[in-house]
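Quick one:
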Amino acid sequence: MIEISNLVKFYGDKKALGGVSFTVDQGEILGFLGPNGAGKSTTMNIITGYLSATSGKVTINGYDILEQPELAKKNIGYLPEHPPLFLDMTVYEYLEYISELKKVPRDVKKKQISEVMKMVHIGNVSGRLIHNLSKGYRQRVGIAQTLIGNPEVIILDEPTVGLDPNQVVEIRKLISQLSKNHTIIFSSHILSEVQAICDRVIIINNGKIVADAPTIEMSAKVEDSSHYLLTLEGSFNSVQMPLRAVPGVKAIAPLSEKNGLLQIDITADGSLDVRKSIFFALARIHVPILEFRSMAPSLEDVFMNITAPKK
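Output:
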């Protein structure tokens, strides 16, 4: 769907990108992360055709963004961090204007605008001036304009910035719904959002990709061990031998043992998923598990570890 090959970008003598390459599959939600100045915005602007690369290639659904810009851009809907809204237009007038820019055929324009407004839940404000809308509704209008023309690729740069918690949850749900019919590149400085929404994460730093993995595997970028917190009905003496026999378990440490309840920390090989084996080992000795929690590093831990300046 999206292929980025060896992108290099200079601003004068400064190298902003130093050979960035990755692909995004159809229907995937990709989290694209990086600290300020890492090259994230430059990469996104090159993908969307707002900037040209010094060298390298971008293809969208088989179309080269430089050699076939009109065909490539028809496949892209882009929401920059500051949506390009015309505040003196009504919501409907603005979407009609975007439809004209994207050359949506007249015979389907009204139907498509209606479907998009319904999808992002802005039909109730279609006749209001954008200037009079709340921040949350303006973001929805911004997302609506990305959907005009039914592009296969949606690129969202900080779509939830400045929103209250309820609005953030609504936008998250909307992005998840959009992934059923669109490929999405999602950028945010709120890493818990990326962890909740994205199938895969790419981290860029100093103009180069420093991590690229499914979201659930990102913790392996920090350490090669997994940690689990278990609360059991039983004693440490009764569980330590069966648990130590589980392949991949490295260490077991009791945290508390009181009133028949035992809390333990298990360290395991990060390359193995030992959860099922632990469950069956305890089931065989009739020890109930009351809590089983993974203590894997968060995406924020991974991001800080990878992008922090080296001392």
